[in-house]
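Pilot study result, target chain (270 residues):
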Amino acid sequence: MPARPPFPALAAEAVTCLRFYTRLPLPALAVEAAHPPDPFARCLAWAPLAGAAVGLFGAAALAGAAALGLPPAVGAALAVLSTVLASGGLHEDGLADCADGFGGGGTRERKLEIMRDSRLGTYGALAVGFSLLLRTAALAALGERGGPGLAAAGLVTAAAASRGIGLMPMALLAPARADGLGHGAGRLPASVFPAAAAGALALGLALPLSAGVPPLRAALALGAATLAAAGVTRLARGQIGGVTGDVAGCCQQCCEVALLLGLLIAPGAG
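Predicted structure:
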């Protein structure tokens, strides 16, 4: 059984993960230079923590909108915008590239070529548009049903859990390219996805329960996110025979939407 990394190494992994997933102006820390994650993918075990940090920006926007008396739909739109700004649109970019490549390419090589193209196509624009629309509508509905507290809990839950569960393609598929982010990260070390999934499960249950969501409803929402991750993994295997960084971003987006919708459609909602 491999030895557990010392605390400084774990701290370096957490900070590196936060720096990767967000656009927060974090200063360079000595612990990062002394204990760089090797391989880099080790830091992805902390993805749910980074996701929770992103979600907190959205929760703050929801709270601010509620304090100003703005309607839930406006607060939801501002919250989603806040999460996009906090993450730099990292995962939305992956969703767009996958939609363009999978929808517009006739061969594996052509799909990968389109995914690498920085230009936005029709499929990509539609995919990102619907992602934003569905997340905003789901948050607005949660706000109408349970107030800004429930919407905030749902948002932080979805942001955190989706980044953990969304690593499934990287855990199960080989890199589809000989270069790029997916190849650089490689297949995840054996301990990374279980750790990230455990963090996603813990936050995905604790946060909704603290907001009064019935346990079955929270569990079904997590199940919906897991099914979404499995679907993206299977789709990527069939379309390009592996994983890229774009696939990982696409998977996170699908998981986040599925989890938010799961909080609405599961038994006991309303």
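One observation from the pilot: The two ends are 47 Å apart (CA to CA). A full batch analysis is planned for the follow-on phase.
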